[in-house]
Specification:
The chain is α+β, with helices and mostly antiparallel strands. 36% of the residues lie in helices and 21% in strands. Helix 5 runs antiparallel to helix 19 (572-587). It is globular, with a radius of gyration of 31 Å.
Length: 740
């Protein structure tokens, strides 16, 4: 008899098949002597649309709401029907006596497999492969320690409950809003609170009133001293007159040193990556969207097999991983990492609770390199960037702390207090890993590398070189200067900062309920590491938010939607309550039937609230362009990287792109240009005023030699390396004698 292995994606299935010695290709699977390996294509099966339950639901009618199925129906996703039937054939083979679930080890991965088994009606015994990387070694070890599939029943119930609850609340609330206000309005228990967080930041920016503030510095003894308020400790004052009076009182005065404090300090590595932290860094450093980073990570995990499972919310590894660290270091001991890794391999590794803690590892440990030897030449430039982030973090936690001596001087003059700070670096430690050349200076470890970390100085004072002073020394004052500035409004969200807000939305909660705030912190915030990128993309695609440079802005549609959505659906507390109960279901301490009973009741309340509301929705982006399909006026909307015309009739659904942000750079200011389409003609337009037809742009680029791609250059250089040294041209040159 044989075991059928069900993987989530074809690439993972091929790796498993190779390790299990399955080489015979059959329809939608690979067969061997003891195993058959087949695959899903992500989800093959999903919850049925409303019209599958009753034909009347095909029409969006308020009188039909809420839609609450008595029995949930599963349907095969139309685009993947062929593969579903391939899998089903293998499931019911007479020579298959057990199923091994090898989908991604997590809540959604469990749902992918279980829904296929449920839809097909397969009741054969189940085993579970639970691994965090898809290297040959991990696969072999995973198959040597297969789990009983029944252990993961609670995880499946949690996943199923989450999907059904989102269907009930999301579809009913979206239909109710759309029918009530005759506009395409979508909402959900994660996307709507996220939108509310963006709106709150916009309100803070709009209501912000900048204030002038003033400070004072002076030079004495070759050091720049900063005035500090005696009681508050602030380095500035909002009263200009007070600062001017202090300046006048310092004339012809001497500074008396009142305190010299030296302290040894150390800072440790920022720690290993989980997905959200990696998405945040990738956005800040490279401008990658959360979705782009996740897609790159998936390729590094599935195709290159050089990084572990990406959809993790843990920043720790377990003690079981520690014995494999040296092997992982050897695998990535290439190029820029050779100056750091050999030193680690020579000596016993230093591990600590800062990154090794079994109690803080959730379903998966932190993102780290695998034992697979890396081949950077097979990666894209973007893949190398993400790989570099992960490897440097991995190496840095194994390095000692960054150590320095902090000197703080305090002095007085004219009954006022002044301070100065200096830092002497004692050991570069982990910061060397982020240095282009580990010279030992802080500038080389931070500025040159492009990696930035929080300043060790918390009060905003600049560290400087300090001479040796004695207590009570008198110093002559010179160069007294008043500094000034304006308080700044909070910054608009970028994808990096929005991810942070979704992960930790406590400060955006209106509730002062300590238990609710604690729950939200414990359950990981809004969404999960696996879904946050999709939520942000959905907000862009629904035209509820738009992007200007890297900043995220709320659209008029988004602001109006928030005024129409029931209050409870805008609050992060709702997600906190859900996630806590789903977590309990996954642990087996809460019944999924009780949770779903609450959700059905909540859905009815939500729909009634929308029905009885008295709000209005107005399209303020109507154009005079008529829809070519239905003749109604179209809406001008701004997507993430494009401007589109969209029919106002949601049932028509016609849309066309009229311009998009390209990667082409303006020849004058070098900014990215917009490609605008009018009829059959396309024109590049830059914000600086430059315009250029697409045909003229291509001709110019060809003349500049832009037709040569990076691949062409690499191929040429490779051919040069392979060219024999004793070719005919070299032989001819060898006979020439040059006078010295």
């Amino acid at each position: 008899m044989k075991s059928l292995v069900l993987a989530e994606k074809p690439s993972v299935a091929r790796d498993i098949a190779r390790v299990l010695n399955c080489h015979k290709n059959i329809s939608g699977a690979v067969e061997g002597d003891h195993y058959i390996v087949t695959w899903a294509l992500g989800h093959l099966v999903t919850l049925a649309d409303p019209e599958e339950y009753d034909k009347k639901y095909k029409e969006w009618d308020m009188s039909c709401l809420p839609m609450i199925p008595k029995k949930w129906e599963l349907v095969v996703i139309r685009q993947t029907t062929k593969q579903y039937h391939n899998v089903k054939v293998q499931l019911f083979r007479k020579d298959v006596d057990q199923i091994i679930i090898a989908t991604d080890a997590g809540r959604e991965g469990e749902l992918v497999a279980r829904w296929i088994l449920e839809k097909s009606g397969c009741r054969k015994p189940i085993k579970r492969l639970w691994i965090s990387s898809v290297t040959d070694k991990a696969i072999r070890e995973g198959f040597a320690h297969l789990k009983d599939g029944r252990m993961y029943n609670p995880l499946y119930h949690a996943a199923k409950s989450r999907a059904e609850a989102d269907w009930l609340v999301g579809i009913n609330a979206t239909r109710a809003l759309t029918c009530k206000y005759n506009a395409q309005l979508s909402c959900g228990r994660v996307q709507t609170p996220t939108l509310a967080i963006i709106a709150r930041r916009e309100d803070e920016i709009r209501s912000f009133q900048p204030k002038d503030y003033y400070g004072l510095t002076c030079n004495a003894g070759g050091v720049t001293w900063t005035w500090q308020h005696k009681t508050s400790g602030r380095l500035y004052s909002f009263q200009k007159d007070d600062i001017e009076n202090i300046r006048n009182s310092l004339k012809n005065q001497k500074l008396t040193i009142t305190e010299i404090a030296k302290s040894a300090k150390k800072t440790f590595s920022p720690g290993l990556y989980d997905l959200t932290e990696l998405q945040r860094d990738a956005n800040q450093r490279f401008g990658f969207s959360a979705k782009e980073t996740l897609n790159i990570m998936q390729r590094l995990y599935e195709n290159h097999k050089v990084l572990t499972y990406p959809r993790t919310d843990s920043r720790y590894i377990g003690t079981d991983i520690v014995p494999t660290i040296k092997e992982r270091l050897k695998a990535c001991n290439i190029g820029p990492y050779r100056q750091f890794i050999p030193e680690l391999l020579k000596n016993p590794l230093r591990t600590s609770k800062a990154f090794v803690d079994d109690k803080k590892v959730s379903d998966h440990h932190a993102i780290i390199p695998t034992e697979e030897y890396v081949q950077p030449e097979h990666m894209t430039n973007d893949e190398r960037k993400i790989y570099d982030l992960v490897v440097r973090r991995f190496i840095s936690v194994l390095y000692p702390a960054f150590e320095y001596e902090q000197t703080t001087l305090k002095a007085s003059a004219a009954n006022e207090m002044f301070t100065a700070k200096g830092k002497v670096i004692k050991a570069v430690g982990w910061k060397a890993v982020y240095s282009a050349a580990a010279s030992g200076s802080e500038s080389s470890t931070e500025k040159d590398s492009g990696y930035h970390f929080e300043s060790d100085s918390e009060d905003g004072q600049t560290d400087q070189s300090l001479p040796t002073f004695k207590q009570s020394a008198f110093l002559s004052i010179s160069h007294i200067s008043i500094t000034s500035g304006k308080t700044k409004a909070p910054a608009r969200f970028t994808e990096a900062t929005l991810l942070s807000a979704m992960e930790n939305p406590i400060k955006y909660m209106e509730s002062t309920d300590t238990k609710a705030r604690k729950t939200l912190g414990e359950t990981g915030g809004l969404g999960t590491v696996a879904t946050r990128a999709d939520i942000i993309e959905k907000l862009f695609n629904s035209f509820l938010i738009e992007k200007k440079d890297r900043n995220i802005l709320l659209t008029s549609k988004g602001r109006q939607l928030l005024s129409l959505v029931p209050e409870d659906l805008k609050k992060p507390e709702l997600t906190a309550r859900w996630e806590m109960k789903l977590s309990d279901i996954a642990k087996g301490s809460h019944k999924d039937s009780e949770f779903m009973k609450e959700i059905r009741s909540y859905t009815q309340t939500l729909v009634e609230e929308i029905k009885s509301a008295d709000g209005t929705f107005r399209h303020d982006n109507l154009t005079n362009t008529k829809c070519p399909r239905c003749g109604k006026r179209m809406l001008l909307v701004k997507g993430k990287n494009a401007r589109l015309l969209v029919c106002q009739d949601r049932e028509c659904g016609y849309r066309e792109t009229i311009s998009r942000t390209s990667n082409a750079r303006c020849p004058n200011c070098h900014k990215k240009m917009e490609l605008i389409k009018k009829g059959n003609e396309e024109t590049f337009v830059c914000s600086c005023g430059h315009k250029e037809k697409l045909s003229a742009f291509k001709a110019r680029r060809e003349k500049e030699g832009a037709g040569v791609t990076k691949k062409d250059v690499q191929r040429y250089l490779k051919n040069q390396k392979e060219e024999p040294l004793n070719n005919a041209f070299a032989a001819a040159l060898s006979g020439i004698k040059l006078d010295s």
